[in-house]
Design brief:
Number of domains: 1
Strand order of the largest sheet: 1-2
Structural class: mainly alpha
Radius of gyration: 22 Å
Oligomer: single chain
Shape: globular
Number of helices: 19
Order of helices and strands: HHEEHHHHHHHHHHHEEHHHHHH
Largest sheet: 2 strands, antiparallel
Length: 493
Amino acid sequence: MPLAEVPNLVPALPEVFMALAAMALLLAGVVPRDGDAATATFTSRTVGRLGVLTLIVAMLLVVGVAAQAPGIAFGGLFVVDGYALFFKVVILLASALCLIISQGYLEAARINRFEYPVLVVLATLGMMMMISANDLISLYIGLELQSLALYVIAAFHRDDARSAEAGLKYFVLGALASGLLLYGASLVYGFAGSTGFDTLTEVMRGEPGAPVPSGVIVGLVFVIAGLAFKVSAVPFHMWTPDVYEGAPTPVTAFFAVAPKLAAMGLLLRVMVEPFGGLTDQWQQVITFVAIASMVLGAFAAIGQTNIKRLMAYSSIGHVGYALIGLAVGSREGIASILVYMVIYAVMTLGTFACILSMRRRGQMTVAISDLAGLSKTDPVLALALAVFMFSLAGVPPLAGFFGKFYIFVVAVDAQAYVLAVIAALASAVGAFYYLRIVKIMYFDPPADGFDANTGTDLRLVIIGAALLTAFFFLVPGPLLTSAASAAAALFAG
């Protein structure tokens, strides 16, 4: 084969490594088959640690190799730019932390099988492919690789009816969303003549004053519907509360962080790059989705008694806030979304680490009332959870305040005053259920204390996330600079 025809895999080296590592982890887990419980536990722990190592090595490859050789691979289906690098680093770090905090729960629930870390690695591989998709076909392949792994781990607790129900609901509704996305992509291809983002960008911009085929607009609406399902935005949110509640808690934590980041990153790339020339067409749809998500997330969470369901509605609301930056459609708007999503990921990961610590006599408890008097029985855990709740509510000077502040500033600068006012009102309503948790922890009569031996890894993640949330205002520069560079790279593409 001539040298010019050899495919350039350097930009995709982290993904190639993760694919090979996932197969190696699968083989490593399958080999010991003597059926001994101790051997199974050792195998799951070993594969889990190797899974974390795989994600860390992949992150180093992203920073050290892919960042030095940006470009395209696989015949233009795969692109690596500053925008993709930003999301990949955050997603890999989030996935590794989710694996770290999962092990204790899996062993306590006796579902510590080696397949779990393998599925997380495969799902993360799908997310990285989504972020680097440069074609509607590679977009769909990455999306389905992620989704198929997530369907399985949602139902990972096979003996729990709620977990099986969560997996089935997620699978059925996810298949529907994939069908909508594929139908929209077929319409776009039929009327535009291509699935490649570069070609679609030229077609959508077209000649000044030339009308865009109506079929492309209809196809775009279906594509937005399919992607809105993945970020759990209204009106495609219906799966979120049930899946968050029914899935094992570490799986819920993973769902709320890494796939959410990847889906948002994919949505931004699709809207800005191939369909950037149709901003006037899709702005109205995104604006409606943002408003509906903020309002439903604010009001539906008020009556929740299960903290996992509350966090599900909270995530819907936060997606609405983030989409304000996309509705604005500017480079500054995209940068504000990147900042917001990273802060959201830190707060949410810390909150779910606290939820994983809610264990009484070896059993998980997820009722909000079980937090009563936590400040007296476990002051450190109560303080950390209070920091996360105040930050999610947007109380200054915590990180969550600055995330919303950047979004609001962008909306006001773009004269999107209605969006800014609705967001402020929804944020005020949402503060009620966050502060109610703080009130329960600090002012209600104490309930029985939680188990003390929750694990060193879990405590370290809680403390680290709480410190980042509390003291973000001291060093916001690196995140703001990185987000601005990533947004610039997206618009440059």
